[in-house]
Amino acid sequence: MRTALIFGVTGQDGSYLSELLLDKGYRVVGVYRRSSVDTTERLRGFLENPNFELMCGDVADSGSVYNIVDTIQPDECYNLAAQSHVGVSFEQPEATFLINAVGPLNILEAIRRRSPDTRFYQASTSEMFGDNYTEKPKPIDATTSLSNTDKFQDEDTAFAPRSPYAVAKVAAHNLVHTYREAYGLHATCGILFNHESERRGENFVTRKITKYVASLKCLMDDTGVKDLDVLGSHRREVLYWNNQDGQEVEIKYLELGNIDSHRDWGHAADYVRGMWLMVQEESPRDYVLATGSTHSVREFLDAAFKSIGVEDWSKYVVINPKFFRPAEVDYLKGNPAKAETALKWTRDISFDDLAQRMVESDIQNIRNE
Q1: Whole-model pTM?
Q2: 48 within some domain
Q3: Is 198 a catalytic residue?
Q4: Is 178 a catalytic residue?
Q5: Is residue 253 annotated as a catalytic residue, yes or no?
């Protein structure tokens, strides 16, 4: 039985990766930060699995990390621990750097000194590219005389970070390279583009949208409102319409920031499979995991609202400047060709399916409250 150590196990990716590894017969040890509230909600499906255990620790505390690595002596170690919200990193830059850069350094040092045969995975991010991309000519379309170019990011695209979060992730990415080359560690980085799921945190824009859409759907069902054209007046920050009994129903606006930014969105369950495949490689290499398609936040709004039968979401959404970042990344589109070829990595969940699954999950959550 192989042993996997997962830092950041209580997050979205940590929960999906744990499930994957347990299904493959691993012993999984998950590390979580102590909190006064329960943070294991995502793990409830396998908390009682005899091959799964939790340890309290903190990647920013080198002594804690050394003790965990020395005690467990894992075959594989995955660092998914991070302050992962880009917007928050502008408000808490020092804490972000401590967790996202010093944390991986502590793990690498612990592996080097205490468990050098451990294979290590570092969660890098597409945010490291910033506003930089690679541009190559597309094949000429036989139906037109116009040529076009394809803009994307891959393993050869230069980094140009535009947030404290991205800067810290670049530092960690480079540290992995240093330890791989200087000490011969089997250490690899997965440069993952945006991956969402039903377990995404509610402060991320995709989950913020799907939770709102789910609330709207439940309100429609509970009040008997079927024709949204009966929408009435706008009063301050609240929308009103009349239900079938002539009663006034209210719902707050969905407040968002830049809805014209483009992201390459996939499902986390597909991406953790790619993480595992990287660690199984004989020689460590870095890989981009992405869908190869990009969609704007507007398009995610389209998909989420259409999943409940609403074609026009504009009357429910307002733009609030407070949600704009000091420095924005406008365009991300990954090229996963290397992972598809070398790892035989595939994806099962489409963009539209992703939005629908998230909305349906949030509807179920509301119904169960």
Answers
A1: 0.91
A2: yes
A3: no
A4: no
A5: no
